[in-house]
């Protein structure tokens, strides 16, 4: 028996409003999650900036092998930190997913709500983390070159720095979205009764 | 049999699940029908299968075998989208623990089922205000669940259940987390909705206060229907 139903409507503005309300209510938790993202991204951005500056300064030896190792490790730290924060954040809200299902939310509605939250946190965390990290990367090179030298150097390479900041934001968005999508999708597939019973 | 007469029909429903290595036979061949505009209480001791029946009728969980019809629709044959539609439009749920969304105000909690139903914003605002008034909380529209008492939260939950004019309201122990007086208020509100709006109400409960207002009582024991009584010939069994 088919019910012959109309297409569901769930406009972007509704999704954003609901997601924004959720971040606001869980402000403290959201700040902790965002800090996890900022920390991971900042660590990575600082090391990358450092490598870039060393490269531009042409210190003779160029970029040494250990720099690549550090950047690799920082990527792993960022990946682990962000994924962990987001997985936890979804996992503690499975019951809430059950409530959304009971009042008629489609699996796709629920996943969209969580993804938009992740996007907002990812953009914010990626941007702040990138800014902080690049600042730190510049800061640790103040003993190698004078402030004046550095500012000339940075000015002529400003495009690279902007690209680095954009890369930070993109990486944060990709990691937060993926680490949200997978558990949110899994939880939204539970029957409402299972989701409501879920203990974390 | 008149097609329109029964809003809920469940026929020979079995539900088994495993708990560790033990197979639990939660429901063992339950059948009954509920008429439109009826107020039915499903009663029985803890662990008798009341909540399992609640979940089965509400399409919140699957059953092992048997058929369940809500408004003549066999819910076993619905896909995920159709089930969500059914939960959204045909059924309103009330829970022991209220299960409101804590990030949202009372009014927003009532609006969210309408958001999922695609109701335009203006209509949502208007409707949610009307329902809030109906449950006596018009001055609490902007309050979040954390700022409301248990009884008020349950009223919001009832209002949310009414949002899309469901064919049936399902309540699972709606008074179990409330004190005596508040519980009576909630029961009174449900009865008023039943009488004034003609809303069909099915309540799983072991609250004996429900007996005097129910049209019929379905007694469940060990996953089976023990007996079905009309209000007229109810004898309160002290054991249950």
Structure explained in plain terms:
The complex is a heterodimer of chains A (200) and B (240). By secondary structure, chain A is an all-alpha fold. Chain A has eight helices and no strands. Chain A has helices at residues 12-25, 27-57, 65-91, 94-102, 107-139, 147-156, 158-188, 192-197. Chain A is elongated. Chain B has six helices and ten strands, in the order βββαββαβαααβαβββ. Chain B is globular, with a radius of gyration of 18 Å. Helices cover 30% and strands 29% of the residues of chain B. In chain B, the strands form two sheets. Chain B has a six-stranded mixed sheet, with helices on both faces. Chain B has a four-stranded antiparallel sheet with strand order 2-1-4-5, with helices on one face. Chain B has 240 residues and is an alpha/beta fold. Chain B has one domain (37-63, 83-233): Rossmann fold, CATH 3.40.50.300. The A-B interface holds A 1-3, 5-6, 8-10, 14, 18, 21-22, 24-26, 95-96, 98-107, 109, 191-194, 196 and B 55, 58, 60-62, 73-74, 77-78, 80-82, 84-89, 93, 95, 99-104, 108, 112-113, 115-118, 144, 160, 163-164.
